[in-house]
């Protein structure tokens, strides 16, 4: 007997929209809006504000992959919400965390330098093309696990190239612009554990970017481990196959790739504060600690972007929002100040990130974003500046190992890591375990006091010295 099911109005949402599972703050579901390349118009941001107010209690979060998350989503509202998102041109990722085994993996939002095309070479078109191709593409909705990509060509590690499955780093090779590849990175506990992406030593010209990305995503889909969720990330395949075999497979599909001797040096700058664009206009980054914002704030930001800029906004991998094409940055800053959105803060506020552990339920009080704010507040009062990354669990959503100061949640306590650094691919080391939130703040205060006793070139140099000398625990 043939059985057919009329999915009707559901059909256009299948594979393009999904609710994620929450387990805290009284929220059962969240939705993660993909923002291709992190680029938004003022009108689309207003649309997000309306969705936040109607479906998410007026609350929103900028994520470290340039998405926007809304919480407190009712399952009964899903179709209405998805329809509104579709009208605004948004999709979601597939949020496969609810499944116990391997599978249900998709390509996540492609992270891009937030000043792409404004400062240095534009790389965002590649990210937009790839996002449009993979979003809702049923051939790539059941991979062993999620796949993460990043692009930067500004000379900085503003997208954390070290912890993506595949990163494209802008280079100029013998007069031709293109990219160096890094593969197999990941910050989470899945095998083989936290892993810095490795340079493949090949040059990818602009016209081969799509084919290279497609080939490696397809390799993950077809040859990645499906027997164990803990071995299902691309980093496990890279670790077991090795770079030589990965390259051989890639070149069998896209043709020979020229070799490059070494990766370009990347600074750890993430475009915080204000700067001048290549066209002489300005950009101004609004710090949003932990990415937390509201419908009202988003509407204000949208209006000010039109009044003082071109109406275009950029979400950043540091959970902030950047105004671009600004002619009078001082006037914009004053307008933000008058509306309670601006205060003069240290670089730590721009560069520190925290995950949504309060909603996923991985931590008790105090949660990741709040702990990050407390530690950054201490550093500001002490006049010491560095980045702080706080993950709520071993999945490492906020790459706690890559910051000079990182915390990893374990329910009601945290482990402290020190000595990580962006741009150098240096993982921090665990130096304390089982700290209460108050003890976390005290531990950082003690580090500041140790630094002030002298003998170090800088605070981060001291943290790296501690990381080198501490006994490395198994699993770090």
From TrEMBL:
Query: Know the name of this protein?
Result: Nitrite/sulfite reductase
Q: Which PANTHER family match?
A: BLR3264 PROTEIN, FERREDOXIN--NITRITE REDUCTASE, CHLOROPLASTIC
Query: Per the UniProt entry, what species is this protein from, by scientific name?
Result: Methermicoccus shengliensis
Q: Which residues cross the membrane?
A: none
Domain Nitrite/Sulfite reductase ferredoxin-like stretches: 27-87, 277-330
Locate the Nitrite/sulphite reductase 4Fe-4S domain: which residues? 106-254, 386-456
The UniProt entry, under Pfam families, shows: NIR_SIR, NIR_SIR_ferr
A single MF term (Gene Ontology): heme binding
Q: Which InterPro entries match?
A: NIR_SIR_4Fe-4S, NiRdtase/SiRdtase_haem-b_fer, Nit/Sulf_reduc_fer-like_dom_sf, NO2/SO3_Rdtase_4Fe4S_dom, NO2/SO3_Rdtase_4Fe4S_sf
Identify the keywords attached in UniProt to this record, alphabetized: 4Fe-4S, Heme, Iron, Iron-sulfur, Metal-binding, Oxidoreductase
């Amino acid at each position: 007997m043939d059985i057919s099911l009329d999915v009707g109005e559901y059909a256009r949402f299948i594979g393009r929209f999904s609710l994620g599972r929450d387990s805290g703050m009284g929220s059962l579901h969240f939705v993660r809006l993909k923002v291709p390349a992190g680029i938004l118009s003022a009108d689309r941001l207003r649309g997000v504000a309306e969705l936040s107010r109607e479906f998410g209690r007026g609350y929103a979060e900028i994520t470290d992959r340039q998405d926007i998350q809304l919480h407190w989503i009712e399952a009964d509202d899903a179709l209405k919400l998805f329809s509104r998102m579709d009208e605004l041109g948004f999709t979601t990722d597939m949020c496969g965390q609810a499944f116990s085994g391997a599978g249900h993996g998709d390509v996540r939002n492609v992270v891009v330098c937030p000043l792409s095309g404004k400062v240095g070479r534009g790389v965002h078109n590649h990210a937009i093309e790839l996002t449009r191709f993979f979003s809702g593409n049923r051939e790539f909705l059941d991979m062993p696990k999620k796949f993460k990509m990043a692009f930067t060509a500004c000379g900085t590690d503003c997208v954390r190239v070290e912890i993506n499955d595949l990163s494209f780093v802008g280079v100029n090779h013998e007069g031709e612009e293109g990219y160096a590849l890094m593969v197999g990175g990941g910050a989470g506990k899945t095998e083989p554990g936290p892993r810095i992406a490795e340079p493949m030593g090949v040059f990818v010209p602009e016209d081969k970017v799509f084919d290279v990305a497609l080939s490696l995503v397809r390799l993950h889909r077809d040859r990645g481990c499906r027997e164990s969720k803990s071995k299902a990330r691309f980093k496990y395949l890279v670790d077991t196959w090795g770079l030589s075999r990965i390259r051989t497979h890639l070149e069998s599909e896209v043709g020979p790739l020229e070799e490059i001797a070494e990766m370009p040096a990347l600074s750890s700058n993430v475009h915080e504060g204000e700067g001048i664009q290549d066209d002489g206009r300005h950009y101004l980054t609004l710090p949003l600690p932990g990415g937390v914002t509201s419908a009202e704030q988003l509407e204000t930001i949208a209006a000010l972007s039109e009044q003082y800029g071109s109406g275009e906004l950029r979400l950043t991998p540091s959970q902030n929002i950047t105004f671009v094409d600004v002619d009078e940055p001082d006037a914009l800053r004053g307008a933000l100040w008058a509306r309670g959105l601006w205060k003069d803060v240290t670089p730590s506020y721009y560069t520190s990130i925290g995950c949504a552990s309060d909603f996923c339920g991985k931590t008790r009080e105090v949660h990741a974003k709040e702990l990050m704010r407390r530690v950054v507040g201490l550093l500001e009062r002490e006049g010491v500046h560095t980045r702080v990354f706080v993950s709520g669990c071993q999945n490492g959503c906020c790459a706690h190992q890559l910051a000079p100061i990182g915390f990893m949640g374990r329910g009601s306590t945290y482990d402290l890591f020190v000595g990580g650094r962006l741009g150098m691919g240096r993982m921090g080391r665990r130096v304390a375990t089982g700290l209460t939130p108050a003890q976390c703040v005290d531990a950082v205060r003690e580090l500041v006091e140790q630094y002030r006793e002298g003998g170090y070139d800088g605070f981060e140099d001291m943290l790296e010295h501690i990381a080198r000398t501490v006994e490395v625990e198994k699993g770090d």
